[in-house]
Amino acid sequence: MKKINLVIFFVMIFLSAKSQSFQTLRGVVLDHESQLPLIGVNIMVFTETGSTFGCTSDLEGRFRVNTIPLGRQEVRFSYLGYTELVMHNITFSSAKEVIINAEMVESTSLLGEVVIRARKSGEVSNEMATVGGREFSVEETNRYAGSRGDPGRMASNYAGVQGADDSRNDIVIRGNTPQGLVWRLDGINIPNPNHFSIPGTGGGPVTILNNKFLASSDFFTGAFPAEYANGISGVFDLKMRNGNNEHHELSAQLGFLGTELMAEGPISKENHSSYLAMYRYSTLQLFSFLGIDVGTDAIPGYQDAAFRLNFPSKKGSNLAVFGMGGTSKVGIIISDAKKPNEETVIYGQNDRDQYFASDMGLLGLSLTKPVSRDGYLKFTLSASHSNIDSDHNYIYRHVDGAGNYKVDSLPRILEYTFRENKYSFNTFFNKKLNQRTNVKAGVNADIYDMMYIDSARSIIPLNVPDELNQLSEWTIRWDSRDQAILLQPFIQFKHQISEKLTGTAGITSLYFSINHKSFSPIEPRIGLSYQINTAQKISFGTGLHSQIQSPYMYYFSNHTIDSDPQEYNLDMGLTRSMHAVLAYDRLLSDNLRLKMEAYYQYLFQIPVDDHPTSFSIINAGSGFERVLPDHLVNEGTGRNYGLELTIEKFFSKGYYYLLTGSVFSARYRGADKIWRNTTFNGRFAFNALFAKEFTTRKKNVLNIGAKVTYVGGRWYGPVDQEASTTKLEIIYKDATVNTQQFKPYFRVDAKINYRLNANKVNHEFGLDLVNLFGIKNILTLTYSPDSPDGEPIRKEYQLGFLPLFYYKIDF
To answer: How far apart are the C-alpha atoms of 105 and 83, rounded to whole Å?
Structure first.
């Protein structure tokens, strides 16, 4: 029966393989400042063969161009008094219409003067940004080998971003902690958007985000505009796309990382409203459910979903309802091992069974409303939820006469539940004051509802042969329920000082009601951009930034059942950071860009221990362990500086490449006043990406790509053998923390995919070859008393060669 079903499946594919040669381009054109439709905009499509197609926008700003040849084409929007908008490498395939919602910016040039050049590929859409940002284009990043369709892993290809952990997608920017990043979706700060997320981190092993429902977004690596707050390293400002408002379209994908279904289409064709919905389920868990052996019982189970309902009006207003979320769980069961030294644990400890579950969800509503020809208002409301549960059971066992393990008991030694609900409100008013000056003002507000419950027992090694380790009494480390408000008002201006010089200025403030120290009254942001000529630009940005701590850290208490609880860190203040960035951009040709950035970042008021140690929150935010803070005070400092280079050839003539490199220093000072390397101070990071497309006469496409990554290793120090034996975990000698460095991380990835354009159906087969040569990169040190060589301190290595296959169909 299975063979018959397989034959039917492939017959259906090839019966649908009749080629379709044309596709439709349509969408709407709006004024960037007012969000009102633009009438009479010229839309031209320039094909690879040199032919052109065009139309003009109607009274609602809508346009349509039929019979566009399949392939990669260039789309241009031109309108009298507006800067020309050029979009390169728009892919036209047989299954889905191409829908573009374009926003045009009014030109400051007068008639007869030189026209300002159009915005090029890679430039952020946020006009208040002068440095440290680039556009995150889903179309471009789909070609990145080794990225697994994950926005976090895709961002690691950019200059200044390190990606040297196969197990996680943490975004380490310029040596900063990953928790210094701000995740935003449609204007709202969102919880960690990853499965198996750990409190106090910004990444995870599998993303909940999916690039299939994302539109082009902005990514910032420093000195970001005043509208962004509560972050010290960078911002990922994500946007969801709308569904097709004229035709119902379906997409399905089967791959190693998930089985996906997506649907989009019109709710009402007359009102141009639309829906988009998608769902993904863990493929390994699906195989296990079907009875297929996947080689392990520790199967990571996860599922996620997202939707967007969009309701535009004829007067330019737009209402959208959107949501996303996911659940995940995994059990790392060591007690099932039958023989000594049989188990190999990378993400757990080999003396206990571990159960972990997490979930995250977001529901939002946004309203955009033009209020004049030169301005518009936007309101967004949302509610988000994140919850993390974990249990650990210690293994008491012995070896029987046959040499097999026998489990005696599995007492509970850890259980915790961390839950955060957040209710968010964002509003802003965008106004063009005159031909040269824009202003944007608004406020972000979050109401936190928090619950943290955690109890643990420590293991007391007796160090006596044939005697079992003992367990301590229960210690309550968290037992808190609380609410707090986070407020961030802002105002920012952009002024065209002259035809070549543009300035931006903004002020924001941050207030967290948890204590009086969590208040930053004024945070200025300033930027300048000088257009030397049509090919060269120099820019500068500086600003003061601050961030609250991960909320759970405020409530750590560490008391016994019989003692009174005392939440140690309720008076902990904000971490603060001063950024300064100087950038130089040069177009070496129409499709080749060079970009250099030099930066300096001074961090201060970083939480450190209240007594002389090497500890600093600046090293937290990565990995699968929570920080267990003691008494923390805001007395730590840090400094990061470096130079970054990007050489990028945009896709043309069938190929593209991206070369990025950075050399940098990231150091910190804890309560012991000693300057040390941060854990993330790799000192250098280099990436090289290349992809080539081969197109057949039937417009089917074969894509071959590769990526090379070479990054300095993370820092650690000599292990305290006695303390590690006592605690049964790795304990480093405090005086020599981060004085040793792992070997540099080196990896080569490859990707090959084939897209078949059939009649109104698009098939895509892909193979992502992660770590093509199986290079052994060090992940971390672990404590393993059952190690075969008798050495309890051992190196754990990252993933070896990992082939990831997927098949996708659009229709």
So the answer is: 6
What's the pLDDT score for residue 273?
94
Q: Which amino acid is at 49?
A: T
DSSP string, 436-471: SEEEEEEEEEEEEEEEEEEEE--EE----TT-PPEE
CB atoms within 10 A of CB 590: 11
Instruction: State residue 467's pLDDT score.
Output: 67
Please state, in angstroms and rounded to a whole number, the distance separating the CA atoms of residues 637 and 644: 23
**Exposed (0-12), middle (13-18) or buried (19+): which is 738, by Cβ within 10 Å?**
buried
Contact criterion met (CB below 8 Å) for 171 and 178: yes
- Cβ pair 360, 192 in contact under 8 A: yes
- 464 phi and psi, to 5 degrees? -120, 125
pLDDT number for residue 420: 96
pLDDT recorded at residue 338: 80
Other residues' Cβ atoms within 10 Å of the Cβ of residue 242: 23
User: Strands 802-810 and 249-255: what pairing?
Assistant: antiparallel
Cβ neighbourhood burial of 584 (10 Å; 0-12, 13-18, 19+): middle
Give the pLDDT of residue 116: 40
**Cβ neighbours for 789, distance < 8 A, ≥ 6 positions apart:** none
- State yes or no: pLDDT of 7 exceeds 70: no
**Nearest Cα to Cα of residue 181 among 131, 154, 221, 134:** 221
CA–centroid distance for 593 within its chain: 25
Sign for the CA dihedral angle at 122, 127, 132, 138 comes to negative
Q: Which amino acid is at 465?
A: P
d(CA 92, CA 22) in angstroms, rounded, equals 8
- The per-residue pLDDT for 194 is 93
- Tell me if residue 381 falls in helix, strand or coil: strand
Which structure tokens are listed for 284? Answer: 């390994």
The per-residue pLDDT for 785 is 64
What is the enclosing helix (H) or strand (E) of 288? helix 283-289
Structure tokens at 270: 């007359």
Cβ neighbours for 110, distance < 8 A, ≥ 6 positions apart: none
pLDDT for 91 equals 84
pLDDT reported for residue 341: 57
Mean pLDDT of 192-209: 90
**Mean pLDDT, range 759-779, rounded to an integer:** 89
Q: pLDDT band for position 287 (50/70/90)? A: low
Which pLDDT does position 560 carry in this prediction?
79
Q: Report the sign of the C-alpha dihedral through residues 178, 179, 185, 191, in that order.
A: positive
Cβ atoms of 59 and 37 within 8 Å: the answer is yes
**In this structure, which long-range contacts are made by residues 793-798, counting pairs with CB atoms below 8 Å and at least 24 apart in sequence?**
793/719, 793/721, 793/724, 793/730, 796/346, 798/165, 798/166, 798/167, 798/771
* Other CB atoms within 10 A of residue 339 CB: 11
Average pLDDT, integer, range 568-579 = 94
230 closest CA partner among 507, 508, 34, 494: 508
- Going edge to edge, which strands form the sheet with 98-104? 62-69, 22-31, 98-104
DSSP 166: T
Query: What SS3 string covers 40-78?
Result: CCEEEEECCCCCEEEEECCCCCEEEEEEEECEEEEEEEE
Least confident of 34-43, 133-142, 484-493: 133-142
Segment among 22-36, 155-169, 187-201, 777-791 with least mean pLDDT:
777-791
Token pair in block for residue 308: 């967007």
- The predicted structure's pLDDT at residue 111: 40
786 versus 63: which is more confidently predicted?
63
Q: For the chain, first and last CA: distance in Å? A: 26
